[in-house]
Design goal:
With 295 residues, the protein is mainly alpha-helical. It has 11 helices and 4 strands; from the N terminus they run E-E-H-H-H-H-H-E-E-H-H-H-H-H-H. It has 3 domains: 47 residues, no CATH class; 102 residues, Cytochrome c-like domain (Cytochrome Bc1 Complex, Chain D, domain 2, Orthogonal Bundle); 66 residues, no CATH class. A two-stranded antiparallel sheet has the order 1-2. It has a two-stranded antiparallel ribbon with strand order 3-4. Helix 7 crosses helix 10. The longest helix has 24 residues. The C terminus is likely disordered. The structure holds heme C (2 copies). One heme C binds next to helix 5, helix 6 and helix 11.
Length: 295
């Protein structure tokens, strides 16, 4: 090693390459050694405290002296959540859906859990967020986030719908009307003016759809004047509806069944939450006798 590379008294390994490159023996800095030692100690502490070293007897492991398990941690987290929830759940147990709706805090809580319930139980038919789903017959299940209601959009109407289910019924008319009559009616309905033809009254449509053709919520008969359609809205499609009816029990009929959810499927509390959740889509109709917030 030549003199110009002499770095003083730093010891070397004695190994020299190309007559010029020496191998110094430099200690790493102190802070680095301290860090290394501290981590080594930490690893040992961690191993002893937490479940760590796998044992050879199949699937077993050293459980650690701290007694920590993922399940315990999850349960601790859950009991915190349950405590928060319990307060609300206890409160809403004896409240009517209208009273829940009148309580801002509860409504917020209920809408949050309602989202999950709706996703699990309703979205398959009504679409995420109640946008409705279609099949080749038209709308398979009604849109729930608009203000157009077959069976009523007051909080209690919605609640009743979910509790007991709904099934509007319109008989098949193909044996009661001539093809010309069906054609005239279908064209009047398609134009949004069902009452323009006297057939609407003469053939009994008014009995269910009302004298003005706007439907009756007690029967879930559609409003035929608002150009909101459940089924195929072409003249041909409307003829099909008139000819074959809705839920008329024949293979050709249009089918529209809202299942009942009380009992087996959902608890009373869950149904109340869903009623408020659906109402809060934005289409819910104000109720003159909304109950005051519960004490
Ligand atoms: C199997 C499909 C299906 C499921 C699941 C379903 N629905 Fe329905 N729902 C329907 C159909 C079809 C109708 C319309 C019934 C009719 O036209 O007679 C309807 C009607 C309704 C109505 C009345 C709409 C109106 O215009 O008056 C509400 C409210 C409603 N459903 C809410 C729900 C909620 C909340 C859930 C989940 C708990 C749910 N539905 C689950 C098919 C379904
Ligand atoms: C027994 C009661 C009843 C009678 C009578 C009746 N309807 Fe209906 N109609 C209904 C119901 C209920 C619905 C809604 C079905 C649903 O969406 O669940 C309906 C739906 C319809 C629809 C579909 C609307 C849409 O949005 O797609 C048309 C069209 C219609 N009716 C026309 C007629 C005409 C025309 C007559 C007379 C020839 C008539 N209805 C007689 C009960 C009746």
């Amino acid at each position: 090693m030549s003199d110009k590379h002499n770095a003083g008294d730093v010891p070397t390994t004695g190994h020299v390459w190309d007559d010029d490159l020496g191998d110094y023996i430099n200690q790493p800095p102190k802070w680095w050694m301290l860090g290394l030692t501290a981590s080594a100690i930490w690893v040992v502490v961690y191993w002893i405290f937490y479940p760590s070293i796998p044992l050879s007897n199949g699937g077993s492991f050293f459980p650690g002296v701290g007694g920590w398990t993922a399940i315990k941690e999850m349960e601790a987290d859950k009991s915190v959540v349950d405590e928060v929830r319990g307060k609300y759940e206890a409160k809403l147990k004896d409240m009517t859906p209208a009273a829940i709706l009148a309580d801002g805090d509860l409504t917020e809580y209920v809408t949050r859990s309602g989202k999950v319930l709706f996703g699990d139980n309703c979205a398959a038919c009504h679409g995420q967020n109640g946008v409705g789903t279609k099949d080749k017959q038209g709308l398979f299940a009604p849109i729930l986030n608009d203000d157009d209601w077959l069976f009523g959009g007051k909080i209690d109407d919605i609640h009743t719908t979910i509790v007991g289910g709904r099934q509007g019924m319109m008989m098949a008319h193909k044996d009661m009307l001539s093809p010309e009559e069906v054609d005239t009616l279908a064209n009047a309905v398609a134009a949004g003016t069902p009452t323009a033809t006297p057939l609407f009254t003469d053939k009994g449509c008014v009995a269910c759809h009302g004298a003005d053709g706007k439907g009756m919520q007690a029967m879930g008969s559609a409003n035929l004047t608002d150009s909101v359609w459940r089924f195929d809205s072409s003249v041909e499609g409307i003829k099909y509806t008139i000819n074959n009816g809705v839920n008329a029990g024949t293979p050709e009929t249009r089918v529209a069944v809202m299942p009942a959810f009380q009992g087996a499927k959902l608890s009373d509390a869950e149904i109340k939450k869903l009623a408020v959740y659906v109402y809060k889509f934005g289409g819910g109709q104000a109720d003159a006798q909304v109950a005051p917030a519960a004490q």
